[in-house]
Write a structure and sequence with these properties.
alpha+beta, 7-stranded mixed sheet, 6-stranded mixed sheet, about 25% helix, about 30% strand, globular
């Protein structure tokens, strides 16, 4: 039984076949399977059918291979049918050429807002793999060019034999909550580069030798000058920009004297649950919500609905 997917880019329906894709003979059989399908990306943007309900456009693997010499990645099995992804390069939109009439390429953030959950999850996985391969073409141990292996899930250095695997960067993303006033409030922050009015959860990368809870406390202290007293996990989200795992948290803080650091955040604002509900509904007079496909939106919704640090027996 599949686990529930609370966030966009989660809930990939494919069997990744991680125990079989290491076998070159088995992988060759999947590539030769006439039922093999492939999604197509152009510079990280998936090809989406122009239908009333947007969805990924699928080509036969043979057709997709004819479009690109750059190679494909194996995504997994769908009811025993192999599924791949192929990336096209160049500056000219292939939708006006080799894939004309099959759909339009949409950048991944736009695609996330359009696609069904399973399609977004598969597309996000493909983008992360292509991004990783593009950044790791040379061995970090000896500097020689590396080769793709295991259907794109590994790179192997032919010179020194070092194996390289896709990296995922963990990020804590959290809503600080203060309960010492007349009613509970949560803190939202704003980066200067965001659209006017946009505010969101606080976030930051984990550092070596640091737990999730410690990273949460450090980031809130650095960005808003607050002290964390308790942390509760809510959910996580694969984030293919380029390959992060967002770890969603609610963090209780000891006071409400928040001060933006003016480096990561230019402004902060405390909101009550009612005010946060207005933010999500788009009726708040000043604050605009994080986009629905972002885990920050999920966290804010969960807090509005009563998810709290202090209640340990609530369902996530």
């Amino acid at each position: 039984m599949p686990l529930p997917a609370l966030n966009t880019f989660a809930g990939n329906p494919l069997d990744r076949a991680g125990d079989r894709r290491n076998d070159p003979a088995w992988l060759a059989e999947q590539e030769a399977n006439p039922e093999a399908l492939a999604m197509v990306l152009w510079n990280g943007a998936p090809l989406i059918e122009e239908e009333q309900t947007p969805r990924l456009a699928w080509l036969s693997l043979a057709h997709a291979r004819d479009l690109s010499p750059r190679g494909e990645v194996f995504l997994g099995l769908w009811k025993e049918a192999p599924v791949f992804a192929v990336e096209l390069g160049g500056s000219v939109d292939p939708a006006s050429g080799p894939v004309q009439g099959l759909g339009q390429f949409q950048d991944m953030r736009t695609a996330a807002a359009l696609l069904p959950g399973a399609d977004a999850a598969m597309a996000g996985t493909a983008k992360s793999l292509f991004d990783w391969a593009g950044r790791h073409g040379f061995c970090a141990a000896c500097g020689q060019a590396s080769d793709s292996a295991c259907g794109g899930w590994k790179r192997l250095c032919p010179a020194c034999g070092t194996e390289h695997f896709p990296r995922v960067d963990p990020v804590v993303i959290m809503l600080p909550v203060y309960r010492g006033g007349p009613e509970p409030v949560c803190l939202l922050g704003r980066q200067a580069s965001w659209p006017q009015g946009r505010m969101s959860a606080l976030a930051g990368f984990l550092e070596p030798g640091e737990t999730i809870e410690e990273a949460c406390a450090r980031e809130i202290a650095e960005e808003a000058g607050l002290t964390v007293s308790a942390v509760r996990y809510h959910s996580s989200q694969p984030w293919p920009f380029p390959s992060q795992l967002m770890i969603g948290l609610i963090a209780e803080v000891t006071d409400d004297q928040a001060t933006p650091d003016q480096t990561e955040l230019e402004a902060v604002a405390w909101v009550t649950r009612k005010e946060a509900a207005n933010v999500l509904a788009g009726t708040h007079p000043i604050i605009k919500s994080p986009p629905p496909f972002a885990i920050a939106h999920t966290l804010l919704r969960a807090w509005v609905d009563g998810f709290d640090v202090s209640v340990s027996d609530q369902p996530a």
